[in-house]
């Protein structure tokens, strides 16, 4: 009887060991993707990878400072692992990167570099949605020597803008056209059904970026062969107007530097190159009031900000007067008529409220304004956001000037799978899988401007509602009479 029990136990151990070995070997065969950062933009990215994990044999590790946030994004999927991840923990960072086949960094742009260096060391592909920094570009040679794809600027803007623009530009060139005008506009907005305030705007992305938009140097672009510059103080009073079928009229203000992509897009000879940010008509004129007051300044702190009311904050930018109210002083300073809709917009965001406190210690004006607006412009639980992108392509073909307009509107599903999360995260996810499957193989630090990259990604994005509508329209340009301007 004793021998029987021992043998039985021996058989059990062997069977257990066998199955553990099978599980281990299956795990070893799985392809491993490390996603660093589980913020708002990562929702659709993570869902896409997990939705494809069975068919593609993927195991996805999601690392974030908040393990709880990472767990929320995995939704208890069997092919996912959520971990607390500190980018500054060098030992952990290196350990996790070594395990991965592809590393996706959804960190703030300035934190990508250490990840990228480790990816070079351990020969791992890397994907980010951020602009290519000079330090990242310096890794190009090392990435090529190791056969590594370092795909950057593969989100929305930058990302989908690059891919959709290059597709049309390449098509025009292939039929012999010469590009003379390129304009590109993008904006994260609130969907029409959720548009419930006078500004026609709610925060769908990082509020701080909205408050600081346009700062850091003059906007630079070229129109009809003439270089143009708009200082920050004038930026929101120089807008273009756009019409999107089914969604009405929009305005756009210039991005900081529209010239840096001229060579990248092959537009060195184009007469016009302009990139801008889309808002609903009237937003920029009202925002300009806040700029002129000084409320968007982030260069100094206000000593008594903690105990200051919103009304006192507004008054701090206005001259002293023994009898005039804050309202009267602001009207006079900014020359706002009593029946101007701008006034109603300023009232709506509580700038004159004496009962609400700032509650921030030694805050900058920009930080205080961000807090004020966050209360008024937050998306409600059932609100949906909207992405609008608009390209204009002017070209000459057989002596005739022509124009193509391409528009894309994407509406979010809910507060988790927003249109912003879709349009930022899905291109990252699709590129990651195509790199893993060796469908994108060109090595080096790059952005998605080659057919190898943009054709399959744009095609797959259509399945998720990211669809561009291209229209042949009469060429307008800026200077049909060819006069000096």
Automatic annotation (TrEMBL):
GO terms for cellular component: cytoplasm. Residues 155-466 form the Saccharopine dehydrogenase-like C-terminal domain. Residues 33-151 form the Saccharopine dehydrogenase NADP binding domain. InterPro entries: AASS (IPR051168), NAD(P)-bd_dom_sf (IPR036291), Sacchrp_dh-like_C (IPR032095), Sacchrp_dh_NADP-bd (IPR005097). Keywords: Oxidoreductase. One of its GO terms (molecular function) is saccharopine dehydrogenase activity. SUPFAM superfamilies: Glyceraldehyde-3-phosphate dehydrogenase-like, C-terminal domain (SSF55347), NAD(P)-binding Rossmann-fold domains (SSF51735). One of its GO terms (biological process) is lysine biosynthetic process via aminoadipic acid. The keyword Oxidoreductase applies. Gene3D superfamilies: Dihydrodipicolinate Reductase, domain 2, Domain 3, Saccharopine reductase, NAD(P)-binding Rossmann-like Domain. PANTHER family: SACCHAROPINE DEHYDROGENASE, SACCHAROPINE DEHYDROGENASE [NAD(+), L-LYSINE-FORMING]. This is Saccharopine dehydrogenase-like NADP-dependent oxidoreductase. It comes from Flavobacterium cheniae. The lineage of its organism: Bacteria, Pseudomonadati, Bacteroidota, Flavobacteriia, Flavobacteriales.
